[in-house]
Amino acid sequence: EAVKVNTLSYQVALKDDNASATLNLKNLKFYKEVDGVETAIGSSVTTVADTSTGSVSYTTSASLSMGNALIVPAGDTVYVIAKADLTDSSIENADTVAIRFAAGSGNAQAQTSKSSVDVPGSITPGNSLTVAAGSLSSAENSAFADLTVVKGASAQKIASWTITAGAAEGV
C-alpha cells in the first residue's frame, strides 16, 4: 500500500583537514524524483561543524517536514535527492560532504491501513561528494601561425588560444 512520509531526519557530515572547520550548505534542498521528474519536498539551512580531521564525522542532525509532498505509491520507486550550493567561503579543495538519513520512528503512515511506519528502517547513507578545484589553462594555439597581412584587410584573425578545463568539471 502507499506510504506517506511525514518527516525525514537526516545527518550531514564534513571531512576537512581543519579540525575546527565549519561549512554552510547554502540552499540545501531535497527533491523526490519519479519517472525522471524532480519535485521539491523540503529545504533547510544547514551548518556543519567538523570535529575531526581525516574522517567523515556526522555532527549535524536536522529534520525535514514534508506534509503531503512525499507519498510513495505501492510497488513504485521514488528517489530522494539532496542538492546544495557549495559556495561557502570555507569550502576547500578535497573537502568531503556526506548526507545520510537517520532511522525513522513512526514518521510515516500507510495510506490504507493507517498504520505507523518507520522510514527508513535503519540509518541509510547517501553518496558522498568530494570538492575538486575547478581549473582552466590556456596556451597559444600552435596550429595558428604569426601572419603578415595587407593594410585594409577585414575580419582578420589576429590570435588563437587553446583553453582546456580540468577533469573535475567544465568551467
How are the secondary structure elements laid out?
Layout: E1 3-5, E2 7-15, E3 22-34, E4 37-49, E5 57-65, E6 71-72, E7 79-85, E8 96-101, E9 108-110, E10 116-117, E11 124-130, E12 136-140, E13 161-165
Antiparallel strand pairs: 1-6, 1-9, 2-5, 2-8, 3-4, 3-7, 8-11, 9-10, 12-13
Keywords:
4-stranded antiparallel β-sheet; 0% helix; 13 strands
What do you see in this structure?
Helix content is 0%, strand content 49%. It is mainly β and 171 residues long. Strands 6-1-9-10 form a 4-stranded antiparallel β-sheet, with no helix packed on it. Strands 5-2-8-11 form a 4-stranded antiparallel β-sheet, with no helix packed on it. The two termini are 46 Å apart. The relative contact order is 0.23. The model has no long low-confidence stretch (mean pLDDT 85).
Order of helices and strands: EEEEEEEEEEEEE
Overall average pLDDT: 85
**Would you tell me the structural class of the helices and strands?**
mainly beta
Helix content: under 10%
Strand content: over 45%
Computed Rg: 24 Å
Assign an overall shape: elongated
Which regions have little confidence, pLDDT < 50, spanning 5+ residues?
none
Count of DSSP E strands? 13
Largest sheet: 4 strands, antiparallel
Q: Please give the alpha-carbon distance between the first and last residues.
A: 46 Å
**Largest sheet: spatial strand order:** 6-1-9-10
Number of helices: 0
